[in-house]
Structures are given as structure tokens and as C-alpha cells.
Amino acid sequence: MTRPLDDPTDRLIAAALIADGRSTLKSLAEATGLSVSAVQARVRRLETDRVIRGYTARIDPEAIGLPLAALVSITPLDPAREYDIPDRLVELTEIEACHSVAGEDSFVLFVRVATPTALEVLIREIRKRANVSTRTTVVLHTSFEGRPHPIGQLDRALDAPEKDRPNG
Which long-range contacts does 109-115 make (Cβ < 8 Å, 24+ apart)? Predict the structure, then answer.
């Protein structure tokens, strides 16, 4: 389990990196009032502790030929084998995320493919590999995704006078 991010300076560094993953150590030092070497040590510790899990570029899926997104809800045909479903699907690169969920289904997958035919082929492969039934919802439009975690909003709420806090 990842350690809690409870140090205010670490939270400030994390919030700055969420806003701009290409922030320089110098800009982080200016934002925190620390030296560049102190910020570098903190960033390395956050990386080592897996608070910071990586840095990545966000690419438009259409630009790389993956315009079709879908949510695939899956339910095991043999409930005794539910625990290893993610392991059986991990090699399918079309699956961007696999969420264990409460409710009627056991998992919800977020997938991206090039065409409806590719989606049909992927669904067949998911059913075969994981021995599951599926229910698929095709995404028509995405209003927003990949939103940053609200570190700054939480800090502002904690700094607000008690009368202004939610339920305060």
C-alpha cells in the first residue's frame, strides 16, 4: 500500500506535478520555498514510495488510430475463478483499465480499438480468455477524462475557516 501523502510540502509538490508533469525542480523549489536539492530529494522519495507512479504524455487516441472507446462489463461464468480474471486479460493491450466493481458485474474494462469489428474481435477474445459473459457500452463522446486528483481542493477546504467547510 502506498503511504499517505500527509506532508503539506509533499502535497504541494504532488499538486504541481499533477498540473504539469514537466515542472522543473527549480520551479518546484520556487513554489515550495525549498532548495532545488531538497525538492529533488523529496521527489525521489515520492517516486521510491510509489506516490508518484510515473510521468507520461497524454496522446489523442484518434491520432494513433484508436477512436472507438467502450466499457465492457464482465461477469465470470465460473464464480470460483473470478480472482484471476485480471491476470488472464493483462496481455490484451486494447484494455486500458480493469476495475473490480461492486454490483451485478465483477469487473468493468475500459477499452480502445480502431473499429467496431476490432471491438467485436476483442470481446470474443475477452470471453474466451477469461470465461466470462460481457455487456458492452460504446462511448459516443467523452466530455472529460484524466482529471487531476483534487489535492489543491482538499488543501483549500482544510485551510478554510470551519464555518465555510462542508458540514462544518
Answer: 109/71, 109/72, 109/73, 109/74, 110/69, 110/70, 110/71, 111/69, 111/70, 111/71, 111/72, 112/61, 112/66, 112/68, 112/69, 112/70, 113/66, 113/68, 113/70, 114/65, 114/66, 114/67, 114/68, 115/68
Instruction: Give the residue range(s) of CATH 1.10.10.10 domains in the chain.
Output: 1-58
Task: Render pLDDT for 120-164 as a digit per residue (tens, 0 to 9).
Answer: 999 999 999 999 999 999 999 999 988 877 775 555 544 555 555
Gyration radius (Cα) of the chain, Å: 21
- Residue of 118, 113, 83, 73 lying closest to 96 (CA atoms): 113
- CB contact at 8 A, 75 and 132: yes
CB 9 within 8 Å of CB 149: no
CATH topology of domain 61-138: Alpha-Beta Plaits (3.30.70)
* Of the candidate ranges 8-17, 18-27, 36-45, 144-153, the one whose mean pLDDT is the lowest: 144-153
d(CA 90, CA 102): 21
Q: Domain 1-58: which topology?
A: Arc Repressor Mutant, subunit A (1.10.10)
Question: For the whole prediction, is pTM greater than 0.85?
Answer: no
